[in-house]
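Researcher: I need the complex structure. Ligand is zinc ion. Inputs:
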Amino acid sequence: MSEDRRNRDPLDHEELESLVAASALDALDPDDQTVVDAHLADCPGCRDLLDSLRETAADLSTGLETPPPPRLRESVLGAVRAEAAAQEQPAPATSDPARAEAPSSRLSRRALIGGGFALAASALVATGVVVARPWRSEEEKDIDQVLDAQDARTYRATWKSAQVTLTHSSSRSSSVLEVEGMDPAPSGRDYQVWSLAKGKAASAGLLRPGENGDARVLVPADAADGAAVTLEPSGGSEQPTSDPFLALDYS
Amino acid sequence: MTSTSEGPAGDPPSTDVVREALLAVAAGDADAFPALYDATSARVYGLVLRVLRDPAQAEEVTQEVYLEVFRRAASFDPSRGSAPGWILMLAHRRAVDRVRSSQSQSDRDVAYESRSHTEEPDPTSEEALGGLEAQQVRSALAQLSERQGEAVRLAYLDGLTHTQVASHLGIPLGTAKTRIRDGLLTLRRLMGTTQRREEES
Ligand SMILES: [Zn+2]
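Model: Output:
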């Protein structure tokens, strides 16, 4: 909404607002969605517009209420119970043999960004799926244990306005990625964290900065040699679909 | 975080229930999920069914929606919108993704043509509109110009992109964009969505 945006963007702001409105209806072609996402990252006014128009759009479904068949309830609740149970277990061991046999002492020293981790997205092969973690208290406990670990080592980086800290503990086989002052991901996208081992990426979940731009994510780091963050379609991907914009190496 | 008073209609009574259940699930209480499902499933399934027009696919997509709701509950931010709005946003996106990925677009175009220019509002909804909020939506839609309402409905309820809206209506893309934007802004004003957001923030 601000003047400087108006000057910077190739489209005038009213045109962008039209795209934002169509975006609230999920009515954009992928190219236009990319334009909107880029703009939303910089324009709080349009983020508010999008939020409020999404509410309006949702109201349009009033009157369409149709009770689903009862079997769907059983099916949904069964799937959710199964997933809840799975999340209470430790993360399942990866079936990737390369990961399994790499001893944790083989953490390699590699150049920060531009080096080993600026891998072509196609070279990154996921060994896990996206695991969102509603079990915050458990995760918070694990996070504190990593941050308090005797052998914790800290790596720092900046990305745009964000301060990024990665704290790695070998004894805990985990890292904690913390960001401060990070802008939210553009609409329809999410930041996704990856644990990297020998050029393979395993999802460590989504990174969603809160109101203050802060977030922290527990990153499994068993036999891993670094962590990276990519921008992915909303909800995350099973494997990275873009190059990491941020990569940190356990050195 | 009080509930709303944007008009005599107010929110559907379930809004607080939905928000509380969603926040509980976000906090790790999976036992709150059945209540969340029960309070929202008719709306989610109804919307998905309207977009997909195929009960079997609507069931599949609704199941995917609820798994996504479960996985992403922790990312629901009450300051950015209502809990039902958040769930319906996920539902709509998945329904539209399904429309665009799995179905031959030409088949759908034929279906649109055969429906011609639908009555106002959609017959299904006309029948089902009952409650006070529904009346408010109906009156808002009625106040919207026919052209704007048509563009908004084609986009939201039929899952067309704005480019497809333009070609379906035989109007320039810029005109379609403007109608969608003005239509939504008008609806927002008529239905008091802004006010509700502010009260919830
Ligand atoms: Zn803007």
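Model: Summary of the prediction. The beta strands of chain A are 125-126, 153-159, 162-169, 174-180, 189-197, 200-207, 215-220, 226-233, 246-249.
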